Amino acid sequence: MSWYKPSDVGFFTRRTLGNLGYAARLFFRLLSSIGPTFRRFGLVRDQIHFLGNYSLAIIAVSGLFVGFVFGLQGYYTLQRYGSTEALGLLVTLSLVRELGPVVTALLFAGRAGTSLTAEIGLMKAGEQLSVMEMMAVDPVQRVLAPRFWAGVITMPLLAAVFSAMGVIGGWVVGVLMIGVDAGSFWSQIQGGVDVWQDVGNGIIKSVVFGFAVTFIALLQGFEAQPTPEGVASATTRTVVMASLSVLGLDFILTAMMFTI
Amino acid sequence: MALTPHSSLVELRNLTFGYGERVILDNVCLSVPRGKVTALMGASGGGKTTILRLIGGQNRAQSGTLLFDGVDVTGMTQVELYAARRRMGMLFQFGALFADLTAFDNVAFPLREHTDLAETLVRDIVLMKLNAVGLRGASDLMPSEVSGGMARRIALARAIALDPELVMYDEPFSGLDPISLAIAADLIRQLNDSMGLTSIFVSHELEQTFLIADHVIILANGKIACQGTPEQVRESTDPLVYQYVHALSDGPVRFHYPAVTMAEDFGPDISRSAGGAI
């Protein structure tokens, strides 16, 4: 075993900075591709369909079950203070402000992010990206950009579905099964949820997660070693890095939005 | 296009290229005559595919110039390079068809990306190109449904969709059965003559290559070992070229990978080691 040499530290630092710089450049290229991408909206629409449709089932079912659990756990806590009529508000605020965007982003990373990484990685392994370059078609513009913007658009829509299903789940458990008063369940939601403070901030979160998760998935696929092992490990990295960034970003965003 | 066309469409002048310390091409000069079929041959890892990638601008040379129709590719900006690439077609070794598109859509891809042609016109062009490679009937098949030889022919139809001036083939014959191989070789020759192309192909296959090529270039150790007509190359007395053209297992290219001496691996003295091994 050899101890670290100073040159190893330098090598590591340089490589890390190089990778970061590369990623940042790709990110800004994707951001600046917005004009040409939306001029060919058909490509984005196909990707929204692909990413959204295939994630819809897992998002809806997860949302429903998270709502069920929230109904039970929320009731358990609230009944200690005799305020079970606030169950609807508790479930809705938790979902819209926090769990909707975060859990959707985690599921999206696992379902759509991995498929993006694998798709791009396999295109690279099969020389499909090289052949596109040789046809004078920019793969970043033609392949990555439509997927990137589709991911950014899809994420808040899926988060909305997740939250809505969660509220329904809370209602099923709270009102139908436990017997909380339906009138106070809904009126507390109506009176207590602020469109800008709560819903708006939730949407901002899920848009930011959309940028982060989709970009990480595309970067990993684009940077994957063009071999079966390379694509496999890139897919794993997508899940790990996307999940960690979602949780980290969530804390930062929540802290920035925090008001009493 | 230039008013006074150069006799060679592609010209490499003192071109050097390598990855890190490893030199792939060492001060290579060669020219690809316009309107002819040129074959690039040589041992694996000898830089043949690299030359194609350099012509297409996917790799940049470390020094020297590479002229495509009189213009240096090595110094081109992205925009200039993309303009030059629209005049080239490249067939990758395994075709590299877009896996999510049908044969038809694969061939239509460059047309739809680069032109505003009406869909009926695109359809006519695509079917014509597919017909030229004999696969008009396969236009609805997905890449996963066709054989390796067919995939390459579809990819060839895609490479010539925009009527390029130069078509490059990266090992078009590898892994093909004898029939597909003969079809591929015929196609290279036929398309070159009927469309007025200039063709370059990388190959290991001696018989078909000598049959269809006008000009053969053999690379060895990063340099050009021999070039000329197939007859000239076949009669070359250069030992390396002789070994390659006659497919000999031992010669200047050794059968044995460089190793320590036999004695060091097996013991300096067989009798002593046998005696001491009780």
Output the keywords.
heterodimer; A: 260 residues; mainly alpha; 9 helices; 87% helix; 0% strand; B: 278 residues; alpha/beta; six-stranded mixed β-sheet; four-stranded antiparallel β-sheet; 11 helices; 37% helix; 23% strand
Q: Would you write up a description of this structure?
A:
The complex is a heterodimer of chains A (260) and B (278). By secondary structure, chain A is an all-alpha fold. Chain A contains nine helices and no strands. Chain A has helices spanning 6-32, 34-39, 41-78, 87-125, 128-134, 139-178, 182-192, 195-223, 228-257. In chain A, helix 1 (6-32) packs across helix 6, helix 4 (87-125) packs parallel to helix 8 and helix 8 runs antiparallel to helix 9 (228-257). Chain A starts with 5 loop residues before the first helix and ends with a helix. The model of chain A has no long low-confidence stretch (mean pLDDT 93). In chain B, 37% of the residues lie in helices and 23% in strands. Chain B has helices spanning 48-55, 78-85, 103-114, 119-132, 148-159, 178-195, 206-212, 230-234, 239-245, 262-266, 270-276, and strands spanning 8-19, 22-33, 37-42, 63-68, 71-72, 88-91, 166-169, 198-202, 215-220, 223-228. In chain B, strands 6-7-8-3-9-10 form a six-stranded mixed beta sheet, with helices on both faces. Chain B has a four-stranded antiparallel beta sheet with strand order 2-1-4-5, covered by helices on one side. At the A-B interface, helix 5 of A face helix 2 and helix 3 of B.
